[in-house]
Amino acid sequence: MKKQLLALSAGLMAVAGLRAQCSPISAPFIETFTGTSAPACWNTSYTAGDGWDFNPSSYNPGYEVQGTADHTNGAVGDDFAFIDFSSPTDVNVVLESPEIDVTGITTPTLRFYHISHCVNNFANLAQHNELNIEAWDGSAWVLVDLVQGENGANWTDYYYDLTAYVYNTNFIKFRFRGEVGQNTNYAYYNDLLLDDVEIFD
After folding, report:
1. What's the pTM value of the predicted model, to 2 decimals?
2. Distance of CA 1 to CAs 6, 128, 180, Å?
């Protein structure tokens, strides 16, 4: 009976879009987005729009990033996360990491690879869409950086020292928040791509 209740509880949580409580992940670690949905213990949410997508093989980003190869293994249309921005009202599109235990890490560093590419249609776009990098300080989300602009058709790596955002002695948590740039009517020209998110020393 107890097993049945646990199974029912897990099923109800899945239907409600909730995730089971996860234990902290030990650093160093890397997330390569090999599944077709959000990785275990990563949370996604959005106020409006379509949210983060994890299945480029069936629903590929469009325009100048169409056919992009995965950074991890170079396979076209495979294994990365992206925001499609086909809905012109994308608001507060969040991909949140699990809690990460950085015990033994001297300088917890966040590294990830990102593409934001829109040249041919920039006259319509006017301003690139935003990728906000935020860290949890134990009580609130704090902006670490705003990445916005043209960085080419190839994957660009970004590094951030998260030492200042360690809370409860040895934990960190971060998130990526996508927002439309300036022209909501043409935001779909600038999909944002993300791959190989890593915490290391």
Report:
1. 0.85
2. 9, 54, 49
Report the distance separating Cα 157 and Cα 182, nearest Å: 25
Give the span between the Cα atoms of 113 and 94, in whole angstroms: 17
**Which segments of the chain are extended strands (E)?**
25-26, 29-31, 43-45, 52-53, 81-83, 93-96, 100-101, 109-116, 130-136, 141-148, 156-161, 171-172, 174-179, 192-200
Instruction: Give 23's Cβ-side CA count (13 Å radius).
Output: 2
Burial of 201 (0-12, 13-18, 19+ CB in 10 A): exposed
d(Cα 122, Cα 131) in Å, to the nearest integer?
17
3-class state of residue 4 by DSSP: helix
pLDDT tens digits for 141-189?
Answer: 999 999 998 888 899 999 999 999 999 999 999 999 999 887 777 787 7
φ, ψ at 153 (rounded to 5°) = -85, -10
